[in-house]
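Async update (no meeting this week)

Hi team, since we skipped the sync, here's where things stand on the single-chain job. The sequence we agreed to prioritize is pasted below, unchanged from the tracker. I ran it this morning and attached the output directly underneath so nobody has to dig for it. Comments welcome in thread, and please keep replies under the output.
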Amino acid sequence: MQTIAFHGVRRNGASVLFAEFRRQQPTGSWYIYRCSGPGVHDGLYRAPIWLPDGQVPVAAALPSPQELADQARAQLRLPTPRIEANPPNDKLVSLPTWMWLDRSGWNTRQATAAVPGVSVTAVATPATVSWSMGDGEDVTCSGPGSPYPAGGDPRAPSPDCGHTYRRSSAAVPGQHFAVKATVHWTVTWSGAGASGTFPDLTTSATAAFRVAEVQALGTGHR
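Output:
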């Protein structure tokens, strides 16, 4: 609906009549569709809509399985890995170093997104660990690694996740090697009669490994 307002103005002794067109905004409210119900958490964004007073909104379209999968993936909470190693303090040149991650963080994690009548679950599974050892070498392990056994032979290498340093860290800043462990998680989803995969997710942790070189002492006999 439009209204017209007239304004009279005198310019240089003459009367000028102006017409101003005004568009009247109908009364109403802004609305946002949101699904609700027992046990339902609706995290999908929907743009607000304007409805004039008296107009009944049409039903909102249900989200697609992919949209719910995206929401479920965003809700995944993956643990930060915790690095363990042997020797527990200084590492030694030419002596095998065992690396492993705390087993409590090596299990599947899942999250579910749902609207009434439809749900999709995303599942993240730890697959491999990439280790950057700080000396220019990288190690890839197919699992969390084996903890060093009590009373084990310190000269024995790890059966599944280890590294042997060939030089000390004395010459690097801080006199330690910056080590980083990155866990790669595969992510799948299923529900609402559909399924799929997402690109891998990663979590990581860092540690400082000081590597010392053992000096052999020679003894002579007189």
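Quick observations from my side:
The two ends are 116 Å apart (CA to CA).
Helices lie at 65-74.
Reply here if anything looks off.
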